[in-house]
Amino acid sequence: MPLATVPIHTTCPDCGNVLVRSDMMRLMVCDDDLDQSFFSFTCPKCGKRVNRPAPTDVRDKIVAFVPTRHWQARPVPTGPPLTDDDLIRFGLEIEATSNATP
User: What average pLDDT does range 9-22 have in this prediction?
Assistant: First the structure.
């Protein structure tokens, strides 16, 4: 069933308050970290692409009207940081592998 198109009041960082049709917006919900969720739209005044945070209260209000996609945040790498020696060793391993006879 298609979503109903409604006008949504939001804010462009350059133009201030704007009115955007809900079908011209996208809601991106981060399933494993809702704090990273956002909605995006093209400002009808200046034409710039705008990304705005979508905290729970905003998500709850617009989810019924705005096309929504779900995504997963990439895990934060753990372990010690790479050193110069690690990178040199990695480069040498790649070189050895690419020079190997099939």
Answer: 96
In 3D space, the residue among 80, 79, 70, 26 whose CA is nearest the CA of residue 52 turns out to be 26
> pLDDT digits over 31-51, tens only?
988 999 999 999 999 999 999
Report which secondary-structure segment, H or E, holds 64. Answer: none
pLDDT score at 3: 78
Domain locations along the chain: 1-73
Beta 68-71 vs 25-30: how paired, if at all?
parallel
Q: How far is CA 6 from CA 19, 47, 55, 90, in A?
A: 10, 20, 20, 54
One-letter identity of residue 41: F
